[in-house]
Amino acid sequence: MTFFWSSWITLISIGCWLxxxxxxxxxxxxxxxxxxxxxxxxxxDGIRExxxxxxxxxxxxxxxxxxxxxxxxxxxxxxxxxxxxxIATVEVDGETVPWTSHNELxxxxxxxxxxxxxxxxxxxxxxxxxxxxxxxxxxxxxxxxTLRHSETAPADLKxxxxxxxxxxxxxxxxxxxxxxxxxxxxxxxxxxxxxCHGSNAKGATGYxxxxxxxxxxxxxxxxxxLTLHNGWHIGVDYKKEPxxxxxxxxxENLGEDGVRAVAEYVLSISGNQNDYDLDQTLVTQGKTLFxxxxxxxxxxxxxxxxxxxxxxxxxxxxxWLFGGERETIRDTLRYGRAGVxxxxxxxxxxxxxxxxxxxVYSLSDKTTPPVTQQTAAPxxxxxxxxx
Length: 387
Ligand code: HEC
Ligand code: HEC
What we know:
- By secondary structure, the chain is mostly helical.
- Among the domains are: 3-75, no CATH class; 242-340, Cytochrome c-like domain (Cytochrome Bc1 Complex, Chain D, domain 2, Orthogonal Bundle), CATH 1.10.760.
- The protein has 15 helices and 4 strands.
- The strands form 2 sheets. It has a two-stranded antiparallel ribbon.
- A hairpin with a 2-residue loop joins strand 1 (39-44) and strand 2.
- The radius of gyration is 34 Å and the shape is elongated.
- One heme C (HEC) is lined by residues 246-248, 250, 262, 266, 290, 295-296, 298-300, 310-313, 315, 320-323, 329, 332-333, 337-339.
């Protein structure tokens, strides 16, 4: 609220309060002339008016409300909210902070989380034989709290936190075999993740399938934990900074002809090459462009098999994030792509993330993909001739 409106409301409130107090004091002071029989001499339709004092109980409530009004102003940030914080406080994140509805909500969420955490430790971790995670979780929470409270965070603290998160991996693996943990995990998934990944986690265009063995960022429990904690490609406004697109746009750099050539080459190495009549001249041109050191190889690897370190997908299979049709691939190249996975660390907390990671890990296909990423596999053209 602006200063003008908060002053406006404050003045009206104080004005009403003074008016009511004034009326009451006036009525208490006012003494009408009374006749001998104790009436005021007024008579309406046979009803005669006495001048009796106001009942005590009524006065007590009335004055009580007036005093309560003042006490409320003192306790809560009711007057000039930005300037008077009130003396009421709540406890948030180990600190005593002035009362606001926002702080009160956070404080209640914290209480709620404590109950959840206790329950998680006793009924889920202990029963899944994963109690060892408790001390790691405690250290992790301390580190996260230090990071939140320090203005100039030690540069390596974030990396240490990621290291601690990864230490939870063996426990996530245990949870992924525990039906009770999976039940809670699946509920959390439906509430938080199904909007993008689908209620069966099989994904949609632009949102990866989590039940296969094809991973952008790695499918081991520690990879999934870190993906959930930190998210991917968040916090960049790609409209303002298109150069930061995770999959860059190439039309300016390569021109429409270049885009068509590389798209043809991508089709030729992909799993749906047989669906198209390929233009071999374009394929050859595209291959050269693809393999220039600052182009596609940089992220997708020498054979286009993808790299977990860059999150660039394997282009040699028939699993598509955005689509494998010729025109869709051209669009991907022309305009770039930016799939954003939100971070969940501050929204769900470490315990719920463990349950979600366990659930996702349990759904995933743990067999090794036929072509292992980042290894020098035989050139895809050899495969193509074999077909
Ligand atoms: C707003 C949409 C959205 C929501 C909500 C969302 N995700 Fe994602 N998620 C994405 C996108 C987009 C990607 C791909 C990121 C990329 O391109 O690098 C992704 C990637 C992932 C990955 C990595 C997949 C891989 O192949 O490496 C995992 C695991 C994942 N999400 C799990 C979850 C879970 C669990 C939740 C719920 C807590 C969730 N996501 C909620 C959009 C979402
Ligand atoms: C800076 C790293 C980087 C470079 C360079 C790069 N890519 Fe990508 N590419 C990515 C990432 C990351 C994604 C996934 C984007 C997402 O999830 O939003 C991607 C996605 C794609 C896709 C979509 C695949 C699908 O499953 O739908 C295609 C096709 C592709 N890239 C082709 C290329 C080609 C061809 C080039 C060279 C002209 C290239 N990329 C250069 C990082 C890169």
